[in-house]
Design goal:
The chain has 12 helices and 12 strands. It is of the alpha/beta class. About 45% of the residues are buried. Helices cover about 40% and strands about 15% of the residues. Helix 2 runs antiparallel to helix 6 (about 160-175). The strands form 2 sheets. A 6-stranded parallel β-sheet has the order 3-2-1-4-5-6, with helices on both faces. A 6-stranded mixed β-sheet has the order 7-8-9-10-12-11. It folds into 2 domains: about 1-210, inorganic pyrophosphatase (n-terminal core) (Alpha-Beta Complex); about 215-335, Roll (Diaminopimelate Epimerase, Chain A, domain 1). The protein has helices at about 1-15, 30-45, 80-90, 110, 140-155, 160-175, 185-195, 200-210, 215-225, 245-250, 295-300, 320-335, and strands spanning about 20-25, 50-55, 75, 90-95, 115-120, 130-135, 230, 235-240, 270-275, 280-290, 305, 310-315.
Length: about 350
């Protein structure tokens, strides 16, 4: 932690300069941790007098758009020229909840040539180089780490109730409701402090878990009943979902959140992969139990990465070819990493 505190102090001095402009960028297909971090950090920066914009290569999930500042975000899909201009004109670029520009989708070419200071605030392993690196794989989430960053720069009193709600959203969703990667006492100390600072836990849970649409339940039911398959040779569940099926069930961003975790509730399954066909690419979500490192599978074959038990990837191939590649590489993965 000593190195992290030194980096936070360096960043504090940089942010004390006048007339700064900043952009905040989450990873492609942002989840609760990425969105919560963007919401809270945008507030922190604007309170400090820094002109700031949130940019995303796609869209934020509908179920997270209640978080403060998220509706202010600019999507590359809607305003590519605005995104390019804001990146080019920024002094600082904050990469939240990801550790490489390769996870920024259509924004990657413009971030790669950014001339200002890049700041990575993240909890994934093997981050790429940046002018400011605040990375800790021990924390539950980027939002837990961001709590340390915000309080270290502006003090505990800088966190208002909306920021507390956003930070808790990230902690809660990235740990599956505190069911995994959440055994450090410090995680609960942060949550306790957020409660003292105004966190409305009941409100957050309402938006996260009690705002489903009937179409979402039917899509998930269809996926589990008709699409879920189990590999005959390995403890692997696969859920492929076509673009046509998404359209049939009126899919909205975030409707498939949590689906990939469900097969892991089956005793004999230790890896679950959700493969979702989108207009621009096929997206993959990997989940596992115990010490099975699905991030290695995602990184080696599917242009992705992530955590030991939760990773993502993407491919510019037809859905059937992606499924075929999973089946072809499964023997390598299970023989290399899974003891049976």
């Amino acid at each position: 932690m000593e190195q992290i505190y030194k980096e936070i102090e360096r960043l504090k001095q940089r942010l004390a300069q006048e007339n700064l402009k900043a952009v905040i960028i989450p990873h492609i297909s942002p989840d609760g941790d990425a969105v919560g971090a963007c919401s809270a950090f945008y507030t922190a920066l604007t309170k400090a007098g820094i002109v700031c914009h949130i940019l995303t290569c796609d869209y934020f999930p509908e179920y997270l758009r209640w978080l403060k500042n998220i509706t202010r975000s600019v999507s590359f899909q809607d305003k590519p020229d605005v995104c390019r201009r804001l990146i080019a004109g920024a002094d600082l670029l904050f990469m939240l909840d990801h550790n490489t520009v390769k996870r920024e989708g259509d924004l990657e070419p413009f971030v790669s040539v950014f001339r200002g200071d890049k700041v990575i605030i993240d909890h994934h392993p093997d981050p790429e180089e940046a002018e400011y690196m605040i990375s800790d794989i021990r924390v539950s989430s980027t939002c837990e780490l961001l709590y340390t960053v915000i309080t270290g720069i502006w003090g505990r009193e800088a966190i208002d109730p909306d920021m507390a709600n956003a930070l808790y959203t990230g902690i809660n969703t990235d740990t599956g409701g505190l069911s995994h990667n959440s055994s450090r006492p410090q995680t609960y100390r942060v949550i306790a402090d957020l409660l003292e600072l105004g966190l409305n836990k009941e409100l957050v849970h309402h938006y996260l878990y009690q705002m489903n649409k009937l179409t979402r339940l039917r899509l998930i039911g269809h996926a589990l009943l008709n699409k879920l398959t189990v590999n005959p040779d390995f403890p692997l569940a696969i859920i492929p979902i076509t673009l046509e099926e998404l359209e049939k069930y009126n899919y909205r961003e975030g409707d498939l959140e949590g689906l990939v975790n469900i097969p892991l509730s089956v005793e004999d399954i230790c890896v679950s992969i959700q493969i979702t066909q989108r207009k621009e690419r096929v997206k993959l979500s990997f989940r596992s139990k115990g010490t099975v490192p699905v991030n290695e599978w995602a990184k080696t074959f599917f242009k992705g990465g992530g955590h030991l038990n939760a990773a993502g990837g993407q491919m510019n191939l037809p859905l059937e070819q992606v499924i075929q590649k999973i089946n072809e590489t499964a023997p390598w993965f299970f023989q290399t990493y899974v003891k049976r």
